[in-house]
Amino acid sequence: MQKKEEGTGKLWGGRFKQSASPIMERIGESVSFDQKLYKEDLEGSRAHAKMLHKIGILNAEELKQILEGLSQVESEIESGNFKFSSELEDIHMHIESRLTELKGEVGKKLHTARSRNDQVAQDTRLYVRNRIEEILDRLESLRKALYTRAGENVDTIIPGYTHLQVAQPVRASHFLLAYFWMFTRDAEFFRFAQESANLLVLGSGAMAGVNYQNDRDFLASELRTNGISPNSMDAVASRDHLLQFLFAATQTMLHASRFCEDIILYSSQEFGLIRLPDSLTTGSSIMPQKKNPDIAELIRGKSARVTGNLNHLIGLLKGLPLTYNRDLQEDKLAVFDAVETVLISLEGLEAMVSEMQFRPERGERSLKEGFATATDLADFLVGEKKIAFRTAHELVGRLVSECVERKENLFTVPEEVRIKISSHFSGEEYQKAVSLELSADKKASYGGTARSRQLEQLELAKKSLESSSKH
């Protein structure tokens, strides 16, 4: 049995006569992770203090003392001299407690017309808004790297794959720009999530509003939000902005993981289409010949963490009644981890894009061995010789089968063998029909891999980068 005490030492402890048990303090603390919100909590507190002064709760001197105190708290945290304790539970209580130590009774006035419920809801919105800005910068840098490398590799021909089998020749620029547009959509998704987060919820109180004529328009202006929450219950209960952030993060990491899978495959001995520098690979502790694409593998693995973070929040929110519930303390772990994971993954991707080199000679070998221009040969029979497609398909199929038996390809099989299958498989016309480069240039439909379309697409990518720089 715990001994009854006159007070608990908690800022909320007036109603309680017993101090919290050790397990209550250990399971209830969040400052070990939510201290990441300190800048946003200070930002919200400064705006709230100025609003309290505006509506007459604080006089000018009290406001000055509070702002000075908050600046000192910020300095102590950033210098590493701030003392964190599980007894004070979270970052909000730590800042308020230290402010009161520094400034006395005036520090106790800061929480007027505010609850931890609307305070933390606002903090997480500001955090997501600010971290998305960092992620957008990383995405922009990655997109620029992809654009630059695509421009350098317009004339590099590599295999394109379906079912992981050689399909058709494509320009390496086409491959790189495919990911450029994926990450462009990711940036747009993050901007949507940022807009969703940039709403004022401070001033909603615990859940029903507050007993003061607070000036929420003033708060919105101070915190640079784009709107004000219309319903105080929804304001403290909703975590949609975190869900949307994690949806965007998950989509980005899925794209990153697919890119890494391509890099891992293409840098293997069997494919050999790209080469990564020594600085971005590792060796084996036992096999001296190994050169492992560890960054790509780690990013591929990290994508699972972000997917798990999204599932974590979905499960957390699924059965919660209105309004605030302590379960929501667990929402920040998923968001903090996703932020760090996305940022380092995008940095790793950019490093690989900037340093990897294509090996066109290996691409040519794979394309020839994979009969990548067989479709072009069939289309030549259809378009130039007016042969029915099914007949053309059969003739080319027979030629490929003959090549396989002879261990030849469409470029090395003797002409006398070809013309036994079709008299049209002869001369310069045949050579043009199976040409790797001409095959790529025949794909001249909008968005295709023809050189003219690649230059067109690079111009679109350039305009996309110029447009995003204006945001």
TrEMBL record:
It catalyses: 2-(N(omega)-L-arginino)succinate = fumarate + L-arginine. Its main location: cytoplasm. Its EC number is 4.3.2.1. GO terms for cellular component: cytosol. Keywords: Amino-acid biosynthesis, Arginine biosynthesis, Cytoplasm, Lyase. It is found in: Cytoplasm. InterPro entries: Arg_succ_lyase_C, Argininosuccinate_lyase, Fumarase/histidase_N, Fumarate_lyase_CS, Fumarate_lyase_fam, Fumarate_lyase_N, L-Aspartase-like. CDD domains: Argininosuccinate_lyase (cd01359). One of its GO terms (biological process) is L-arginine biosynthetic process via ornithine. One of its GO terms (molecular function) is argininosuccinate lyase activity. The keyword Cytoplasm applies. Residues 14-308 form the Fumarate lyase N-terminal domain. Residues 371-438 form the Argininosuccinate lyase C-terminal domain. Pathway: Amino-acid biosynthesis; L-arginine biosynthesis; L-arginine from L-ornithine and carbamoyl phosphate: step 3/3. The keyword Cytoplasm applies. Belongs to the lyase 1 family. Argininosuccinate lyase subfamily. This is Argininosuccinate lyase. The gene is argH.
